[in-house]
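Final report, Chapter 2: Outcomes

The project's central promise was a pipeline that accepts a single protein chain and returns its three-dimensional structure in a standardized token representation, suitable for archiving and comparison. That pipeline is now operational. To close this chapter, we reproduce one record exactly as it appears in the project archive, with the input sequence first and the structure output second.
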Amino acid sequence: MRDVGFAESALDSSGICHVAIACPDCGSLLSFPPLPRRSTAICLRCRNQIESTSGRSAHAALACTVATLALLPAVDTLPLLRAEMLGQRSESSLITGVAQLWHHGWIVLAALSVVFVIVLPAVRMALLALVLVALRLGLRPPWLGPAFRWAVWLDRWAMLDVFLLAVAVGYYYLTTLEHLDVTIESGGRLLLGAGLLTILSRATLDARAIWRAIGGETGAVPDDRAIGCRTCGLVQATVREGEPCPRCGARLRARKRDAVVITGALVSAALILLFPANLSPMNSSNLLGIYLEYTNFGYVVQLCHLGLWPLGVVTFWTSILSPALMMACLGWCVLAVWRRSRRRLVLRTRLLRTVAEAARWSETGPLTIVFFVPLIDFGHLGAEAAGGGATAFIVMSLLTMAAAATFDPRLMWDATT
């Protein structure tokens, strides 16, 4: 059974601050003893999970990270799937898909796919491997904290696991088409392994333990108010605001500057793109003389007509409902800060955490195009092409992710002080 403890206020009866960590969501200064195995510490104020030792292992995280890093070159270059139609064959790899999109003028879609599926997963895994290996060897170089900060920050932007879901959804759909035989190639099997290892590395990584191993925890000056680094949780006196965090190198801020204005602008821009992203064609198909265009709505309807209800539900959630709900949630939080509302603070904070994690999975739709385009290319029999909706959708999703990253939930809790 898992033990659950609540991290309490860090101020004792004498007013001296014995601080272990600052809650990144509500700003509370918290203190709790070292956790035993299979235990969780939760902020008593906002119910945020501060630390969990359940299923965490630095050795497992290191093994998964190194294995993923070793697989990435093959995943990027080897064929993922092979398709055959009436004697014509074609293959699709990640590199060829991006190259073909670029060649046909879909520059934004191709460039963003390269960054988020090829470059950032490799950079994040390399940084994480360096940090874990250094700690394993007992080394504490000065770049260790900043390297782990970037590895943590890049976690939501490195989308190899999202691309795995996109390929799985596309493969499931292609197996239902007549006259088309689809087989999984070596790159596809390696992608499955790398994607699952990526998920395992996230699940087994104990970020709090890594931060303690890098620099330990410090207490605040008794007579001063304290601020906490929102990246690593290190608590410092307020006189150090604006300086780099001694542990991770991030700039110490009591609150993010202009967070509400920036988040509001990003959400507004994403909302504008929501309609062309779902109403414009994501891709077009010209097979055996039949020309079709697919919007997100039309794709969901077609899947339901084919009896593919599970795939239809996934597509409807990731492509239509989830982006709209995330924008509504972020807009609600922005308005709550402007109105200094104290209502449903815990609920709003939990929704923000959900948005921060779920926004990346909305990229499933446009990333499907990356391997669809080169795979369905049978010369005179027909081919697939990207549509304007794919570019609008991937930009909309990135704006939503950026809005969730720029918002400071501590601003909502300031209404209680």
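Archive annotation: The chain is about 55% helix and 15% strand.
This record, like all others produced under the grant, will remain available to the consortium after the project formally closes.
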